[in-house]
Amino acid sequence: MLDPDAIRGTTVEWRPARAEDAAIWVSVTRRSADQVTFEAEDAQIARYKEENPDLQAQRYLLWRDEAPVGRLRFFAYGNTAELDGLVLLPEAGGSVAAQVVSEALVRSAALDVRHLKATYSAAYIASFAGAGFQELRRRTGMTASTDLMVPLFPLPASLRVREMLPDDGEQVGILLQRAYAGGPDSLHPDVAGWRAEVRAIQEGRFGPFIPESCFVVEHSLDRYNLVGAILVHLEHGVPRIRHMVVAPAFRHVGLGQFLAVKSMRRLHDLDYATALLYVTLGIPAVNLYHRLGFIETGPTYIEAERMLLK
């Protein structure tokens, strides 16, 4: 007969991560096998403490036998709940991921939402697939030196590249919708969602915006629709290329490479030595990033979704 105390001892408990838990949160992050660390430990602790109240409310530490074994973020908006930032220590064991998934489903049901979205390392795929999650896309992080040796070839004379202005957000949102339509990176159902994401980037909600390294491209015959754009912000102290897109009709003329090289050269001038991006595996842009010197760093992440019965 199983010992009830032993059973309880294997249970993973979600506890809200408080301000005074900063050192524990950072320690779990740095000890995990599937995290790439760009910041010093002190900087990570400071960033944890400086998060706004909305982000603080999303944080949970995972405890087993009064010892931390992982951390995650869980939050809800509209009819959707989201599990993100799942990090488990190597010694946690396979059962911890399965318990996390079960608890996320129970919490989502209690919140009466229709969808549960999750982002997790491919190491945990069995636990999520076994619970009925449908994979949406796989992404991996890539980094490169901003000190590029790639030449900047001139573009056709009808294309004009300039720095992105604050008022460009609406048009960049339209471009993102056009560029991602029908592909795995089409994350928003309408242009309003893309415009909201651009505003969030410009306002620094994903990390400090770096407008000096953000560019848009116009065509001389159509000043009302942008044909290319690149958006960059800081993530953990490293510039992240959040979006680099070209309108479908203007691809294969070297515009994507031109934007990337121009932006990374500007980052180098700003004394940033490294650039970071996350790319969806299997898309043509992966080959471009390799040509620019980007290499895969860290694990593959899976974005998945499960519908909840009402």
Structure commentary:
By secondary structure, the chain is of the alpha+beta class. It folds into 2 domains: about 5-130, Aminopeptidase (3-Layer(aba) Sandwich), CATH 3.40.630; about 145-300, Aminopeptidase (3-Layer(aba) Sandwich). The chain has 10 helices and 12 strands. The protein has helices at about 5-10, 20-30, 40-50, 55, 95-110, 125-130, 170-180, 190-200, 255-270, 285-290; strands spanning about 15, 60-65, 65-75, 80-90, 115-120, 135-145, 160-165, 215-220, 230-235, 240-245, 275-280, 295-305. It has a 12-stranded mixed beta sheet with strand order 1-2-3-4-5-12-6-11-10-9-8-7, with helices on both faces. Strand 2 and strand 3 form a beta hairpin. Helix 7 packs across helix 8. The longest helix has 17 residues, at about 95-110.
Overview in brief:
The protein is α+β, with helices and mostly antiparallel strands and 310 residues long. It has helices spanning 4-9, 22-31, 41-50, 53-56, 94-110, 125-130, 169-180, 191-202, 255-269, 285-291; strands at 13-16, 59-64, 67-77, 80-88, 115-121, 134-145, 159-163, 215-219, 228-235, 238-246, 274-280, 295-307.
